[in-house]
């Protein structure tokens, strides 16, 4: 409903004694919040935007001893930045923190983390998922606040026995979004080169995203319809891992790579580019997989072909994968979180 000041008045009445009003104006054809009024506990509060309202909400929630986590920093950091410093907040990073991972000391922070990094004194600590990112963030912020490494996930090992694989085909798998930073076209190029050496090779790619059409066109261009399959999103990959020979990662960057840990937990060795962050902490070369210099497609081809040509190596790497996954157990992760909360 538009009032005589050309504001749109939107009201929600939750209880007789509680009421929230939002006033909007139209800018470039889109509604824009101009004012928010909250009637709460027999008082009237005025806010200029939803960020201020969010900060008010946090202050009402807080009780002594509480600890807040800013997990979706692009939304939550601006809110926490407006709250009193007496309310403890810890920021959590789920990805690389800078725009250009090859310029650690000079690259601007990603927009999703900018509000947090520009107000470091507001936070008690930052949690990252790998030891290498911990070191990189500490250096970048000059140890202004503590940075703690706690893995973003844990493994639930499916089977501690190494399976004998069905040799009717050599099945490689990739679990990743169909997006540019995953560089999945390089995996298709890899299969194009391998087919003449390994006619029974297959690559199954699980995911979704904007690159689906381009990837499908590349598969058709090379005539790989019987070798490369875009499988889409599957909620449970247990069966898919059960007959997989190797898992591939060709990303430009990762935050941790839960898909890598999941693969190891199923006893599937991983061949990955040596990128920040995750692979070089989850993969011990010649124990549970191999690390390849980023974008070295010749080295990727050589290593994948080597493991295919030597099934005994694949079996040894499979055993190592299961052993490595045990280091990321649920019990270990709970212990790390418990220690962190007690210290903070």
TrEMBL record:
Record's keyword terms, sorted: Glycosyltransferase, Transferase
The EC number(s) this enzyme carries: 2.4.1.52
Domain Glycosyl transferase family: 164-319
Keyword Phosphoprotein: no
InterPro entries: Glyco_trans_1
Gene3D superfamilies the UniProt entry points to: Glycogen Phosphorylase B
GO MF annotations, alphabetized: poly(glycerol-phosphate) alpha-glucosyltransferase activity
Pfam hit, one: Glycos_transf_1
Main EC class the enzyme belongs to: transferase
Organism: Staphylococcus aureus
UniProt name for this protein: Poly(Glycerol-phosphate) alpha-glucosyltransferase
């Amino acid at each position: 409903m538009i009032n005589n000041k050309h504001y749109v008045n939107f009201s929600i009445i939750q209880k007789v004694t509680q009421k929230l009003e939002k006033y909007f104006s139209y800018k470039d054809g889109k509604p824009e919040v101009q004012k928010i009024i909250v009637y709460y506990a027999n008082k009237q509060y005025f806010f200029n935007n939803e960020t201020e309202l969010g900060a008010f909400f946090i202050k009402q929630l807080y009780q002594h001893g509480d600890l807040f986590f800013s997990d979706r920093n692009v939304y939550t950091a601006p809110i926490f930045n407006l709250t009193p410093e007496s309310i403890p907040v810890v920021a959590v990073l789920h990805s690389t923190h800078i725009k250009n991972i090859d310029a650690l000391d000079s690259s601007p922070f990603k927009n999703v983390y900018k509000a947090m990094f520009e107000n470091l004194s507001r936070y008690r600590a930052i949690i990252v998922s790998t030891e290498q990112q911990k070191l990189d963030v500490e250096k970048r912020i000059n140890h202004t606040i503590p940075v703690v490494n706690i893995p973003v996930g844990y493994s639930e090992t499916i089977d501690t026995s190494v399976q004998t694989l069905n040799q009717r085909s050599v099945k490689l798998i990739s679990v990743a979004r169909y997006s540019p930073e995953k560089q999945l076209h390089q995996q298709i190029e890899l299969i194009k080169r391998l087919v003449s050496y390994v006619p029974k090779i297959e690559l199954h790619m699980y995911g979704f995203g904007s690159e689906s059409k381009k990837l499908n066109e590349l598969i058709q261009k090379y005539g790989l319809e019987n070798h490369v399959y875009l499988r889409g999103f599957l909620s449970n990959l247990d069966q898919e891992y059960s007959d997989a020979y190797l898992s591939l990662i060709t990303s430009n960057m990762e935050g941790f790579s839960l898909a890598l840990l999941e693969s190891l937990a199923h006893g599937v060795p991983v061949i990955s580019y040596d990128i920040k962050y995750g692979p070089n902490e989850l993969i011990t070369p010649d124990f549970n997989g191999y690390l390849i210099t980023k974008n070295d497609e010749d080295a990727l081809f050589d290593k994948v072909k080597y493991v295919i040509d030597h099934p005994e190596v694949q079996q040894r790497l499979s055993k190592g994968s299961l052993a490595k996954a045990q280091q990321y157990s649920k019990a270990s992760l709970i212990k790390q979180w418990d220690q962190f909360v007690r210290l903070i």
